[in-house]
Design goal:
466 residues, mainly alpha
């Protein structure tokens, strides 16, 4: 159900990325001639499917960038409250209510657009509110994983849950393109994915619980096993050690890795469909198919690497810290190289798709690398750590769509190439930071008693020094 939560969250989040390519009226402005422009593949001069002028809106590239980024304005805000609430009251309701609000606002998106006659400011407000609901998703899930998943299963179980992002992106891209092509109406995707989100919420509240102790149907042996395995996780009320968390070098290294990943990932999630249409000249049904392929490969790699990571650690072939750093580096440097190659293959459309696919495949090792690292550093405050890292990382989701829209106003390959070079630089820099300062070791402040002991030892040391 955690996996399906992420799937639903991403289908509702990403559906606009494909839909917006069919919501915008063709530009009447005279654009500069792009010497690298690729030809449309058939006799038609247009790649558009929706032709009803009442369903098309005059949004320029910068406006589209604002619309696509606005979701992340709200998304970043509710991470920290979501993490705190999940740790205090349990992840069940924090997660469920967040997905519920996102589903409701996804369902009413077409109505709001039509009622406002395509007023992009109102759509931006709606997307901000939608992001507010979804911002609790990752912190709540991290708090749930800390209560339910043993140490030697964290990589594969965490990867399974968080890789729902790839499946959600695949489903959204694949179905959105085909559905818009079949119905010739972009509104259909919002009705479908909003409805599926509501269905998930109903099932979630019926069968899922925040921790093993509150589950009415758990077997006694399973409860004892989890209590034994998760001895470092307490259900007692905890005071969050803000000062030590916010001054922790490993935490900020984790933030850097998250920002690097999110910058590249959000650039692909929100803007790859536009690149496919603007540069490679794919029609919407083709766009949905080929935009989804990279995420299918990313999901396969993420599942295999999660299993491999746990196996290497369990067999003691490498330390936990080395495993986290190695898989994070692969997830940064691989995509950095191949997205640049993709921009230099000219109009060989399929070769460009393959390069983007390889790039996203490498990114699949991110989940068993730094994504589960918050559970290593502090299982008791995993929700708070996820809120901090994912919340700051979400700022990349605010910047990248707007920056891409501002830099690609004329839809030329050279402009898109500059966008990908920026992603390359951020991938490399953040990977270096995490490789130097990241760690997989549990931090002393995870255990409240450990904090007291640490303070006592520091006090004794200071007395001796005096």
């Amino acid at each position: 159900m955690g996996f399906l939560a992420i799937v639903n969250a991403y289908t509702m989040r990403v559906s606009l990325s494909v839909a917006i390519t069919e919501m915008v009226a063709p530009s009447n402005s005279t654009e500069s001639i792009d010497p690298n422009a690729c030809p449309v593949q058939d006799d038609s001069n247009s790649t558009s499917t929706v032709t009803d002028p009442d369903r098309l809106y005059d949004w320029d590239e910068t406006t589209q960038g604002l619309i696509l980024s606005s979701f992340y304005w709200g998304y970043a805000i509710t991470h920290l409250p979501g993490g705190i609430l999940a740790e205090k009251f349990g992840g069940k309701y924090t997660l469920g209510l967040g997905i519920l609000s996102t589903a409701v606002f996804t369902l009413i998106t077409p109505w709001v657009i039509h009622a406002s006659d395509g007023n992009w400011v109102i759509l931006v407000v709606l997307r901000v509110i939608e992001g507010l609901g979804e911002g609790t998703t990752y912190p709540a899930l991290n708090a749930l994983l800390a209560k339910w998943v043993p140490l030697d299963e964290r990589a594969k179980m965490g990867t399974l849950v968080y890789a729902g992002g790839q499946i959600g992106t695949i489903v959204s891209n694949l179905i959105s393109g085909s559905l818009i092509h079949a119905t010739q109406d972009w509104a259909s995707v919002f009705y479908l994915f909003g409805g599926l989100g509501l269905l998930w919420v109903i099932i979630w509240f019926l069968i899922c619980y925040s921790d093993p102790q509150s589950h009415p149907f758990i077997k006694e042996e399973e409860l004892k096993y989890l209590q034994t395995e998760l001895t470092r996780v307490t259900n007692d009320k905890k005071t969050i050690p803000w000062k030590v968390i916010l001054t922790s070098v490993p935490v900020w290294a984790l933030v850097a890795a998250q920002v690097g990943h999110d910058w590249g990932f959000y650039t692909m999630v929100t803007d790859l469909p536009k690149y496919m249409k603007d540069v490679l000249k794919f029609k919407v049904n083709e766009n949905g198919i080929w935009s989804s392929l990279p995420y299918a490969v990313m999901w396969i790699v993420s599942m295999l690497s999660g299993w491999l990571c746990d196996w290497l650690i369990k067999k003691k072939y490498c330390s936990l810290t080395f495993a986290r750093k190695f898989f994070t580096a692969v997830a940064s440097l691989g995509p950095a190289v191949f997205i640049i190659i993709a921009s230099f293959v000219g109009c060989d459309r399929m070769l460009a798709v393959y390069m983007f696919t390889i790039a996203m495949g490498f990114m699949g090792t991110f989940y068993c690398g730094m994504k589960v690292n918050a559970l290593d550093l502090s299982p008791n405050f995993a929700g708070t750590l996820m809120a901090i890292t994912n919340g700051i990382g979400a700022i990349a989701g605010i910047i990248t769509p707007y920056l891409t829209g501002a830099l690609t106003g004329e839809h030329t390959l050279e402009q898109w190439r500059s966008v990908l070079w920026i992603s390359f630089s951020i991938f490399v820099v953040t990977s270096i930071i995490y490789t130097i300062w990241g760690t997989g070791e549990e931090q002393w402040w995870n255990d409240p008693e450990g904090r007291k002991q640490q303070k006592a030892e520091n006090g004794e040391t200071n007395k001796e020094e005096k």
